[in-house]
Structures are given as structure tokens and as C-alpha cells.
């Protein structure tokens, strides 16, 4: 379960690792994603435990916050893109943990997405009101997955952290991944460009036990 948590953590952080060259710079707002889970018949019970999972991305200037609800666990990730620091708040099995990482610590960890490339292909759809193109992601281990991306919405500036979407020509609004025999489709359901209150990025100071990342993520 910790391996699955770490992988989801990487996914949620990496969705921000893109260069700003779009028509609209995304400096303030919220994106609401859904997570649909499919599995082989013999693993359907595990898939059912994740049904209805969501994550929400908040952006305001240099600040990012990701709220992820995986049903069996919840986490919040607070990111300061100016100094590349991360604070993770994790709730699982009745326990609440706090974990702090910097960009260098993340870069030193194994990452199957290093060396990823993308090939545009025929296909398009409208997602959350934005026109999207289809690309196929190619991983160094030979696996592939589809990504629908828009060129009309991008974060401000450059954000670097073990980049899952390095080389993609836009912002991913839908993609599919296979994790432990579970096929997960992550889709943006709503994009709200209303200003996000600064209080959204206030990190709780109590109620969590701080843990060492090396011990927790093993």
C-alpha cells in the first residue's frame, strides 16, 4: 500500500512539471479530477475500493496544493515552486502523518517516467470545456499510455520534479495508467479560474506525526 501511495504521490506532483508556452497562463484557479478504476475480474474487489477517488489541484502564483482522496487513504500535498519544497499530509488506517521533501530528494528516488517521450496521434475530445489532442506516451520499459492534452491552459513558469509529462506539448486533462493490474483513468471534470484564497495553502501545524520519508516510503 505504501508503494501505491508513493506512486500516486509522484503522479500528482508530476502533473505540474510542464513548461509555460500556452495561450493562457494558469496562475490562479482549481482543477477537479476524477479517477476511474478498472481491473481484471479476479481483482475487482480491490478496484471497487478505489471507485469514486478524486484529486483536486489548487494553483495560486508559486503555490500548489493537491488534495487526493483514494478512499482507503487521503493526502494533501503543499508545494512551494519557488524553493521546491513539498509537505505531504497523509491519513490512512486512522493514522495521520506529515512528511517533508525537497526537489533533490524526489529526484534521487526511482522513477519509471524518466526518459518518457510522446507521439501525437489521431484523436481529440473536449474535456472540461477545453479542446484536447491525443498523444501516446512511451516509457523506457516499452509500455505506453494515452494522454489527452490542451494547449490552452498551462501553469505559470517552469516546474521541475521527476517529470512525468516532460516533452508533452500541453497540459494533460486525461490520461490512463496501469498500476498493479489496475487501469486508472484520470480526467479533469471541472476547471474553475476563480481566485483561490491564500488560506488554502496554510499547512496545519498540529494533529500529524512527522515521519522520515526514507522510512515511510520503503
Automatic annotation (TrEMBL):
Keywords: Signal. Residues 1-22 form the signal peptide. This is GLPGLI family protein. It comes from Thermoflavifilum thermophilum.
Amino acid at each position: 500500500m505504501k508503494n501505491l501511495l508513493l506512486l500516486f504521490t509522484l503522479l500528482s506532483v508530476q502533473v505540474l512539471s510542464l513548461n509555460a508556452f500556452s495561450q493562457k497562463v494558469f496562475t490562479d484557479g482549481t482543477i477537479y479530477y476524477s479517477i476511474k478504476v478498472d481491473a481484471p475480474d479476479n481483482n475487482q474487489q480491490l478496484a471497487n475500493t478505489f471507485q469514486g477517488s478524486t484529486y483536486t489541484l489548487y494553483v495560486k502564483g508559486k503555490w500548489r496544493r493537491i488534495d487526493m482522496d483514494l478512499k482507503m487513504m487521503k493526502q494533501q500535498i503543499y508545494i512551494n515552486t519557488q524553493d521546491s519544497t513539498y509537505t505531504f499530509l497523509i491519513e490512512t488506517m486512522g493514522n495521520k502523518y506529515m512528511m517533508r521533501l525537497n526537489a533533490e530528494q524526489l529526484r534521487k528516488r526511482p522513477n519509471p517516467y524518466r526518459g518518457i517521450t510522446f507521439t501525437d496521434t489521431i484523436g481529440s475530445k473536449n474535456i472540461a470545456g477545453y479542446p484536447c489532442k491525443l498523444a501516446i506516451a512511451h516509457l523506457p520499459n516499452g509500455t505506453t499510455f494515452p494522454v489527452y492534452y490542451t494547449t490552452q491552459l498551462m501553469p505559470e513558469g517552469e516546474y521541475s520534479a521527476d517529470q512525468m509529462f516532460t516533452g508533452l506539448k500541453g497540459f494533460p486533462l486525461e490520461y490512463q495508467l496501469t498500476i498493479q493490474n489496475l487501469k486508472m483513468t484520470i480526467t479533469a471534470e471541472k476547471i474553475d479560474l476563480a481566485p483561490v484564497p491564500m488560506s488554502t495553502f496554510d499547512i496545519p501545524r498540529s494533529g500529524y506525526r512527522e515521519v522520515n520519508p526514507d522510512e515511510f516510503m520503503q
